[in-house]
Specification:
This protein is α+β, with helices and mostly antiparallel strands. The chain contains four helices and six strands, in the order βαααβββαββ.
Length: 155
């Protein structure tokens, strides 16, 4: 892969980023899985490399489904504003198993993007099983599938 041009990477919480309207080509992120895993513990090395000092606070932000939905609405509104026409928003989202029922976060986020926020179309979705070897809690009931959702800003 080679790219000739300017590359700029922004990292941080979406609500804190100051990015101009229609100024970026793509957003790639993996939001918390609605408290299905210990995000800070399971990603502590990645977070350390990214310079996140208080990773343990990340897990306290998303405790209830309502908090997750609010976070995703705010994020998708920002992403739509940031993206250039035909820009892509790529999300990696894991399903959650709670109280013996599965919550399809990929479908929930897709519905938010298409219906509540609008201005997006689905370019692609990829379903990926999470092998037991990759999970922090083997044979657990938490995330067993992840979705890669590629949204494209409509114009």
């Amino acid at each position: 892969f080679s790219y000739k041009g300017r590359v700029e990477i922004h990292r941080g919480e979406a609500s804190d980023l100051r990015i101009g309207a229609e100024s970026i080509d793509s957003v790639i992120t993996s939001p918390p899985y609605m408290n299905a895993l210990d995000y800070a513990r399971d990603n502590r090395l990645r977070l350390w490399f990214l310079g996140v000092e208080h990773a343990d606070l990340l897990d306290q932000k998303i405790r209830r489904k309502e908090q997750f939905l609010e976070l995703m609405i705010e994020f998708l509104q920002n992403a739509k504003r940031w993206l250039k026409p035909n820009g892509q928003c790529i999300l990696v989202i894991g399903d959650v198993n709670r109280n013996n029922s599965r919550v399809n976060l990929g479908q929930i986020v897709t519905d938010i993007a298409l219906s509540q926020v609008g201005g997006f179309k689905i370019q692609d979705t990829i379903k990926d099983k999470v092998p037991d070897i990759r999970r922090a809690r083997r044979n657990g009931r938490s995330t067993k599938e992840e979705w890669v959702i590629v949204l494209k800003r409509k114009d």
